[in-house]
From TrEMBL:
Protein name: HPt domain-containing protein
Keywords, ordered alphabetically: Phosphoprotein, Two-component regulatory system
Organism of origin: Aurantiacibacter arachoides
PROSITE patterns per record: HPT
GO MF term list: protein kinase activity
GO biological process, one term: phosphorelay signal transduction system
Lineage: Bacteria, Pseudomonadati, Pseudomonadota, Alphaproteobacteria, Sphingomonadales
Superkingdom per UniProt: Bacteria
Domain HPt residue range list: 1-89
InterPro entries, per the entry: HPT_dom_sf (IPR036641), Sig_transdc_His_kin_Hpt_dom (IPR008207)
Residue numbers carrying Phosphohistidine: 42
Length: 89
């Protein structure tokens, strides 16, 4: 990995963390819509893991799985929200 690439990835990772509040707001806005929450979780799962936040990606995948399977996803949504809150500082 080149220094320039590493620097760019660090910048993108920091930007993702800085936008954690926006991600939380989007999740909260669609919390009662199973399809919308699954879609938001899917997006977060992909980008967060790529940008160095695998714990957020894992939590988002768990949320997506529960929502898509018609199960209660309250615990997973709360867990993901807490991780995003910690990123937001």
């Amino acid at each position: 990995m080149t220094d320039a690439f590493a620097a760019k990835m660090a910048e993108l990772s920091a930007r993702f963390a800085a936008q954690a509040g926006e991600h939380r707001a989007r999740l909260a806005a669609c919390a009662s819509d199973r399809e919308a929450i699954a879609a938001q979780a899917h997006k977060l799962a992909g980008v967060s893991a790529m940008l160095g936040h695998p714990h957020v990606g894992e939590a988002a995948l768990a949320l997506e799985d529960k929502a898509e399977n018609g199960e209660d996803y309250t615990v997973e949504l709360r867990a993901l929200d807490e991780l995003l809150a910690a990123l937001a500082g």
